[in-house]
Amino acid sequence: MEKKFRAFVVNKVGDNFQSGIQQLNLNDLPDSDVTIRVQYSSVNYKDGLASIPNGKIVKTYPFIPGIDLAGIVVDSKDARFREGDEVIVTSYELGVSHFGGFSEYARVPGDWIVPLPKGMTLKEAMVYGTAGFTAALSIYHLEKHGITPESGEVLVTGATGGVGSMAVAMLAKKGYNVVASTGKESEHRYLQELGAKEIISREEIVGEKIPPLGKQRWAAAVDPVGGKTLAAIVSQLKYNGAVAVSGLTGGSDVSTTVFPFILRGVSILGVDSVYCPMEIRKELWQQMATDLKPAQLLETIGHEISLDELPNALQSILAGKAKGRYVVKL
Ligand SMILES: C=CC(=O)SCCNC(=O)CCNC(=O)[C@H](O)C(C)(C)COP(=O)(O)OP(=O)(O)OC[C@H]1O[C@@H](n2cnc3c(N)ncnc32)[C@H](O)[C@@H]1OP(=O)(O)O
Ligand SMILES: NC(=O)C1=CN([C@@H]2O[C@H](COP(=O)(O)OP(=O)(O)OC[C@H]3O[C@@H](n4cnc5c(N)ncnc54)[C@H](O)[C@@H]3O)[C@@H](O)[C@H]2O)C=CC1
């Protein structure tokens, strides 16, 4: 008899949208080269969007979301991978148009696979997940731009979220002077534990009106929030400063002027984790296993949940209530 396994499935027929845990078998998985027994997945904002009817993430239904997975290879037609290999899969079409990680089994192209680096467990890989990788990629872009710990204060917005928490902890570990911005007054202690030197409110960044040129404060910023927050950051960056932009939890429209760019030489650096070249991807996962790994990863940032608890976690991330990272045990 064909092996049965559990997965979180979303389906949309006309206006009728449904989601929940279902029993599937291996024949339901897409035809691809490497079959993986998923051990852990994680919950990203994009997964929240994938779990609702008009999130504009999922391309075809029925579908298994989950843009991250880590597990053990059980079968491979790709010579680069063997049964028993521990692997990470994030990005590309995973959880968007190719069945994703909210499933006990997954089948993916070998080109999407990163071998688990030495010094990292499968669970740690998924506490990081796409959010952690995006934080590392944001720092990579800022440092390529010339930012160093000596440049001055680095602002992290959405600081209690996935990308934000990881950015605070990684920057602090590298010796940066991190200022964390949050709307959650109850989480100041959490941010201090991650290494933030100062904590400011969302309103303190945006103020009542965003002037074309604000007081110069930030050497750099990691911004997964976007919208007005990004517009305000641009006006507050120091001469030659840069903001690494990854997200839109605060909105996708950004209204700014040319002045910070032409009078202060500031830069907006775009961060795309999905099609980041494999060479950089592997290098960053290696750093995440070593130099970038925060001591607080498992105990403070990661919260393990079961597949049955996933629907609540997806609602929580969409409501902006999630703290740190939900890691899903499969
Ligand atoms: C982990 C990563 C992230 O979290 S990224 C942030 C999450 N992603 C989003 O929130 C994007 C969700 N998508 C949208 O809101 C919309 O698709 C849109 C606003 C980006 C565009 O909407 P519109 O209705 O104007 O057009 P289409 O949806 O038909 O798309 C137009 C064009 O853009 C391509 N595209 C759509 N989404 C993406 C994407 N995520 N990455 C790259 N490109 C994207 C889409 O394929 C269309 O291009 P075409 O060449 O015509 O196929
Ligand atoms: N460009 C890329 O490759 C990637 C982009 N992203 C994007 O980054 C963003 C964050 O993703 P996650 O960390 O997974 O989400 P998350 O939900 O864990 O974190 C989002 C943070 O934004 C805060 N927030 C919500 N609404 C806000 C508002 N109006 N103003 C200020 N802050 C607000 C939340 O409180 C939370 O702290 C999302 O937009 C996501 O799509 C995430 C990963 C990769």
Automatic annotation (TrEMBL):
Q: Decide whether keyword Oxidoreductase is in the record.
A: yes
Q: Which GO terms describe its molecular function?
A: acryloyl-CoA reductase (NADH) activity; acryloyl-CoA reductase (NADPH) activity
Q: Which domain of life is it from?
A: Bacteria
Q: What class of enzyme is it?
A: oxidoreductase
- The Enoyl reductase (ER) domain sits at 19-328
Which keywords label this protein? Oxidoreductase
**What Enzyme Commission number(s) does the record list for this chain?**
1.3.1.95
Q: Name one Pfam family in it.
A: ADH_N
Question: What Gene3D superfamilies does its record include?
Answer: Medium-chain alcohol dehydrogenases, catalytic domain (3.90.180.10), NAD(P)-binding Rossmann-like Domain (3.40.50.720)
The record ties this protein, via PANTHER family, to: ACRYLYL-COA REDUCTASE ACUI-RELATED (PTHR43677:SF1), SHORT-CHAIN DEHYDROGENASE/REDUCTASE (PTHR43677)
Tell me what this protein is called: Acryloyl-CoA reductase
Q: Which organism is it from?
A: Calidifontibacillus erzurumensis
